[in-house]
């Protein structure tokens, strides 16, 4: 109901922990959103064939399009810092949606699965 009224401007108004996807049939796009503190994880892989997303790495790695290649920069981050800096993950081309962010993808940009927008959820936007 909130999304229908305010669109992505509804996300800063939400309380609690969440990571979700909304299909906007009118715009023919999917919107992924993550809670303000980043408690609930949301990972995604995007290419010209489309968008895949999950709350953990294992389901993404099960998809045949997602290659099981490590990201050398992410490995370096992990060995140096003890964790991987967002938005990277240990797997190349799989990313974490940062806390308090949303991502929109759909067919309006000319091809199915085109990435349209990624942004921060801000109050009063």
Characterization of this structure:
With 125 residues, the chain is α+β, with helices and mostly antiparallel strands. The protein has helices at residues 2-6, 57-62, 72-81, and strands at 19-24, 29-34, 43-47, 50-54, 94-96, 101-106, 114-120. It has a single domain (2-62, 93-120), classed as Glutamine Phosphoribosylpyrophosphate, subunit 1, domain 1, CATH 3.60.20.10. β3 and β4 form a beta hairpin.
Instruction: Please give the share of residues in helix.
Output: 10-25%
Run of helices and strands: HEEEEHHEEE
Number of beta strands? 7
- Mean pLDDT metric: 86
Per DSSP, the total helix count is: 3
Task: Please sum up the structure shown.
17% of the residues lie in helices and 30% in strands. With 125 residues, the protein is of the alpha+beta class.
Features:
125 residues; alpha+beta; Glutamine Phosphoribosylpyrophosphate, subunit 1, domain 1; four-stranded antiparallel sheet; three-stranded antiparallel sheet; 3 helices; 7 strands; 30% strand
Task: Please outline the helices and strands.
Elements: H1 2-6, E1 19-24, E2 29-34, E3 43-47, E4 50-54, H2 57-62, H3 72-81, E5 94-96, E6 101-106, E7 114-120
Antiparallel strand pairs: 1-2, 2-6, 3-4, 3-5, 6-7
């Amino acid at each position: 109901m909130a999304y229908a009224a305010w669109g992505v401007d509804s996300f800063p108004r939400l309380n609690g922990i969440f990571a979700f996807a909304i299909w906007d049939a009118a715009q023919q796009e999917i919107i992924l959103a993550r809670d303000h503190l980043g408690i609930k994880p949301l990972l995604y892989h995007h290419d010209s064939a489309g968008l895949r997303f999950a709350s953990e790495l294992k389901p993404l790695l099960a998809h045949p399009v997602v290659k099981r290649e490590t990201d050398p920069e992410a490995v370096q981050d992990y060995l140096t810092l003890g964790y991987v800096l967002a938005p990277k993950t240990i797997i190349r081309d799989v990313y974490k949606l940062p806390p308090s962010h949303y991502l929109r993808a759909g067919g309006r940009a000319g091809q199915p699965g085109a990435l349209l927008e990624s942004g921060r959820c801000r109050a009063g936007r």
